[in-house]
Every structure is written in C-alpha cells, then in structure tokens.
Specification:
There is one protein chain. The chain is α/β, with parallel strands linked by helices. It has 2 domains: 52 residues, Spermidine synthase, tetramerisation domain (Spermidine Synthase, Chain: A, domain 2, Roll); 215 residues, Vaccinia Virus protein VP39 (Rossmann fold, 3-Layer(aba) Sandwich). Helix content is 23%, strand content 31%. The chain has 7 helices and 12 strands. The strands form 2 sheets. A 7-stranded mixed β-sheet has the order 8-7-6-9-10-12-11, sandwiched between helices. Strands 1-2-3-4-5 form a 5-stranded antiparallel β-sheet. A hairpin with a 4-residue loop joins strand 3 and strand 4. The radius of gyration is 18 Å and the shape is globular.
C-alpha cells in the first residue's frame, strides 16, 4: 500500500541549481522500483495524473498532447509512406496513440526498455495508453540499441521518444545509435527524435544535429510548448534523405488532434533568431 501525500503536498523538480517547477499533488497513486528506475504516478491538483521517472516529470494528463502531437504528426504528414513505424521508448503510450490515428499505418513496433512503465501506464494513465491493444502493434521490452543491432527490418518512420539523457537512456543520444537508426530507415523515410530544451540543452541539440548530418542531407529542428518540461519549450529534430525543397505534406493531419494542424506545416522549421544562430 502506497502512503499518499495529503492535499496541499508538492512535487518539485529542479532544472537549474535553484529553479525548476512545482506541482501540487493530491496523492501518490503508485511507486515502483523496477530493474531500471523508480516509477511514480501522482494525482496532481492542476495537471491530472503525472508520470515521474527517477524524480523527473515524463508526462501529465493535462499537457501530454502538446508533446505527443508535435513529436508525431509532422513526420506522419511529411513522409511519403507511413506503412511501418518504429517507436523507441514511449512506454506511456502517448506516441503510439497518435501514430495509430492514421489508417495507412500497417505495422507499429514499440521498443520500451522497462516493461513496468507500460504496465503501470495501462493501469493508471488510460487516456494515453489507448492503442496498446491495436492489432497493428508489436511490443518489445528491451534496450533500443540492442533491438536495432539484432533486427533487419526497415521502417517508413522512426520516432525516438526517449527520457532525459541520463542512465540507460544516455545511449539514445549517441552517434552510434543514430547510425543504427539510419540503417533501419527506408530510403525516403523520416526520423524524429525529441531533443530536449532549446534554453538548457543547446550543446546536446547541436551534437544530435551534427551526428545526423553525417547520414542525412536534410536535418531540421523544430519547436513546441510543453508546460511541465524544463523551460516550457521543447525541441524535436527531424532527419530524412528527402531534399529539403521536396519535403512537403503527403496527407492531411489526423482529425483527432488538439494542437497540431495542417497550417502549422508551412512554418514548422522556422526557428527563432537566437536558436538558429546557436545551432549554426
């Protein structure tokens, strides 16, 4: 039995030495220490249920759609084919939910290191985990790098929905990992990875961009808001062998979205002056 915090308790996550975010919590629904990490799910006062891994906010019911829609829908609209999709990470189910909105998708492979994240998300985060039983979906519980090293499959679209680059997830931001991703992408496929905060993690974003430019002629960073993530703004990096001038919509955005829509595509890769300069 988990001892719940009483009303008025707070969850705090520090982003810099003496700054971060706090969220009021009503109760702790579950705390589980798996083989890889400590998983907590809280009922918050203002953001619904919240998934926390090793003390870091992964998602909340109130703002998760901002992250998942911006991660998924640009690639799903721009890719010539979306028949086969690979998701590395994403054990809460939100990315999978967005991918499943496209009827053209025939096969989705989700590779999640920690089976407990999926199990607890299915139990406590039902609004995110709606697509795990979709017959098009295959789950693999293993390290993403290991999966890529053993499979010969190629994919139309690949999403890297990783946690922050610490511990087991650090490899998901490495050059060898991106090299493997490139090998498993179809010739006109599209890869999108979440690449952290444009304010706090510019060195990481530059590193990812440089790693991808070694294999892809088109590498584009774009932005989206996520209220409970460090700085409130997030970056996503898209890579493809399609020339930039040929990268245009191939299908409309799925109708069941709350944030992303067709008109956003034309301005997606326009970056603020400071960030564009920082990324070179």
């Amino acid at each position: 039995m988990v001892e719940p915090p009483g009303p008025g308790s707070e969850f705090r996550e520090t982003h810099l030495r003496r700054s971060g975010i706090f969220l009021g919590t009503e109760r702790l629904l579950v705390r589980k220490t798996s083989k890889f990490q400590t998983i907590e799910i809280y009922e918050t006062t203002d953001f619904g249920r919240m998934l926390v891994l090793d003390g870091m906010v992964m998602t909340t019911e109130r703002d998760e759609y901002l992250y998942h829609e911006m991660l998924v829908h640009p690639a799903m609209v721009l890719a010539p084919s979306i028949e086969s999709v690979l998701i590395i990470g994403g054990g809460d189910g939100g990315t999978l939910r967005e991918v499943s909105k496209y009827s053209e998708v025939q096969r989705v492979t989700l590779v999640e290191l920690d089976e407990e994240v999926v199990r607890l998300s299915r139990q406590f985060l039902p609004t995110l985990s709606t697509a795990f039983d979709d017959p098009r979906v295959t789950l693999h519980f293993e390290d993403g790098m290991t999966f890529l090293q053993r499979t010969q499959d190629r994919y139309s679209v690949i999403f890297v929905d990783s946690p922050d680059p610490v511990g087991p997830a650090e490899v998901l931001f490495s050059r060898p990992f991106y090299e493997l991703l490139a090998d498993h992408l179809e010739p006109e496929g599209i890869l999108v990875a979440q690449t952290e905060s444009p304010f706090y993690h510019q060195d990481l974003i530059r590193s990812v961009v440089q790693s991808l430019k070694g294999r892809f002629p088109t590498v584009q960073v774009y932005l989206g808001p996520v209220i409970t993530y460090p700085s409130g703004t997030w970056t996503y990096t898209l890579a493809t062998r399609i020339p930039k001038e040929s990268l245009g919509p191939k299908r409309p955005v799925a109708k069941e979205t709350r944030w992303f829509h067709d008109e956003l595509i034309s301005t997606l890769f326009v970056l603020p002056k400071e960030l564009a300069h920082a990324l070179g």
